[in-house]
Design a protein that fits this description.
Glyas_Fos-R_dOase_dom, 260 residues, 2,3-Dihydroxybiphenyl 1,2-Dioxygenase, domain 1, globular, Anthracycline_SecMetBiosynth, alpha+beta, 5 helices, VOC family protein, VOC_core
Length: 260
């Protein structure tokens, strides 16, 4: 089925050393890395079993001087990038990069929601289908999670622009609720209150692994920092939240193969 408005279609890491990042994620997820072949803008593609699931670009000193930090971001499909960007900015969002063409690939814009969480919108120049988000496949993204200073307003905002709807919610006590995001007949992620006072609103992406304990062992052996987990979540699966070697926050999700 072709991608529709509101689908997550690409995941992108910005970091000082994409080659080192490819080595870590290759060990944890099984990704293979190759150069995209654009001398004007070096870019590394990550693939799983021959399917491209994401990429990495270099965080330059100039970008860092403007406040950019290592991190993962996602691209969301829209029908018209210029119209979507204008509507989002008119609805209280921000614009970091205006609508711009990537020759031979598509048109994109880098925006923020009204609470400041950054994300991309994109329309490809072809009608190719992205399987970057595929919850049944290891090595693909399985979950998109927004921690927001105002998740109620955030849900309304994303619903207006991407057609996302509210799913079930899990209570988090005084902190509020963990509310699932429904889209196109499935659950694609969740929104929750920002748990650290004063921390910026941000997206976190969880990539699927075949064995959560094996993933944890590789992360520790490679020197990544596990912030949380492995923790069991509904569905008899487990999650890890980590900082990779360059400081980018990332999640992993999968089953526990061995009884502990």
């Amino acid at each position: 089925m072709a991608n529709i408005v509101g689908d997550f279609i690409w995941y992108e890491l910005t970091c000082p050393d994409p080659v080192a990042a490819a080595d870590l994620y290759g060990a944890v997820l099984g990704w293979r890395q190759r150069d995209a072949g654009n001398p004007a803008m070096p870019y590394h593609l990550f693939s799983m079993d021959g399917v491209d699931v994401g990429g990495a670009m270099t965080l330059t000193p100039e970008m860092a001087a403007c406040g950019a930090r290592p991190g993962w971001m996602a691209y969301v499909a829209v029908a018209d990038v210029d119209a979507a960007a204008a509507a989002i900015v008119g609805d209280g969002g921000g614009q970091i990069v205006p609508p711009t063409d990537i020759p031979g690939v598509g048109r994109f814009a880098l925006l923020t929601d009204p609470q400041g969480a950054p994300f991309y919108v994109m329309r490809g120049f072809s009608d190719g289908v992205s399987d970057a988000f595929a919850q049944s496949r290891a090595g693909h993204c399985h979950w998109n999670e927004l921690s927001s200073s105002d998740p109620v307003a955030g849900f309304d905002f994303y619903g207006r622009h991407f057609g996302w709807t509210k799913g079930d919610a899990m209570p988090m006590g005084p902190a509020g609720e963990y509310r699932f995001i429904n889209h196109a007949g499935g659950t694609i992620g969740a929104m929750m209150p920002q748990m650290v006072t004063g921390a910026p609103s941000a997206w976190l992406f969880y990539f699927g692994v075949a064995d959560i304990d094996a993933a944890a062992a590789v992360l520790k052996a490679r020197g990544a920092t596990i912030l949380h987990g492995p923790q069991e979540v509904p569905g008899n699966i487990f999650i890890i939240v980590a900082l990779d070697l360059q400081g980018a926050a990332v999640g992993f999700v999968g089953p526990r193969k061995a009884a502990l």
